[in-house]
């Protein structure tokens, strides 16, 4: 009988390049590294206590995702996000998140609904307190939780990538309390369809939400 050559489990730890990648990705998503900002590789290596090899590996992965750009004699910088690109992002979100919502409605559980409702309440509380700093993170959590409920990892990965681009774009945008209120209401409509286990209504609510936010972003970016 042929032995199983893959019997040994993989070690349960992350490589240095993975940790550098996650650190840079969080900084880009949160706006600590702004679009167009140059990344000082030597400083990063010193601060993280690693050699340049894991830094280069992490940068290569971020570059493949379109999050950074590397130019000869200019170094590495955070990729710019323009209005034209954002239109494409929202078109992709409309297609993907509409499908995500339909699939999630077909297999929705009480646990998924509870998780989504918890995020919604946190968003309401944040808005009621007049503090909007956590709203982008909470909004991403809502959509990522929903995408996980659809049951396909590729859809969750695509949703995460698109949301990251939106968050990067919104970093420099003025805080808009009225729009965040609209976002919560649009989430409520989607949640209502999920509670009714109605895939068609859930997909329509998700697409309406993305369309409304696309219109808002285009109007904000054009002004």
Account of the protein in words:
With 223 residues, this protein is mainly alpha-helical. It has helices at 16-30, 41-48, 52-64, 83-107, 110-128, 135-149, 153-170, 177-195, 199-222; strands spanning 38-39, 68-71, 75-78. Strands 1-3-2 form a 3-stranded antiparallel sheet.
Strand order of the largest sheet: 1-3-2
Number of helices: 9
In N-to-C order, the SSE pattern is: HEHHEEHHHHHH
**Stretches where pLDDT falls below 50 for ≥5 residues?**
none
Beta-strand percent range: under 5%
Main sheet specs: 3 strands, antiparallel
Q: Which structural class fits the helix and strand makeup?
A: mainly alpha
Number of strands: 3
* Average pLDDT over all residues: 87
Euclidean distance between termini CA atoms: 70 Å
- How large is the radius of gyration? 20 Å
Task: Describe what is shown at a glance.
The protein is mainly alpha-helical and 223 residues long.
């Amino acid at each position: 009988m042929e032995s199983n050559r893959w019997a040994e489990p993989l070690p349960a730890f992350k490589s240095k390049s993975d940790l550098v990648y996650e650190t840079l990705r969080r900084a880009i998503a949160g706006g600590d590294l702004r679009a167009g900002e140059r990344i000082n590789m030597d400083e990063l290596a010193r601060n993280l206590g690693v050699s340049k090899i894991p830094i280069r590996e992490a940068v290569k992965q971020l570059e493949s995702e379109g999050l950074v750009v590397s130019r000869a004699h200019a170094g590495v910088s955070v990729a710019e996000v323009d209005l034209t690109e954002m239109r494409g992002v929202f078109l992709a979100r409309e297609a993907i998140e509409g499908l995500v919502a339909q699939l999630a409605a077909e297999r929705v559980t009480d646990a998924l609904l509870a998780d989504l409702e918890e995020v919604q309440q946190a968003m309401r509380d944040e808005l009621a307190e007049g503090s909007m700093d956590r709203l982008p993170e909470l909004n991403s959590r809502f959509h990522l939780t929903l995408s996980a409920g659809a049951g396909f990892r590729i859809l969750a990965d695509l949703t995460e990538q698109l949301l990251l681009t939106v968050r990067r774009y919104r970093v420099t945008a003025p805080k808009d309390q009225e729009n965040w209120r609209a976002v919560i209401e649009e989430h409520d409509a989607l949640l209502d369809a999920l509670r009714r286990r109605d895939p068609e209504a859930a997909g329509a609510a998700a697409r309406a939400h993305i369309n409304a936010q696309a219109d808002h972003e285009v109007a904000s970016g054009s002004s």
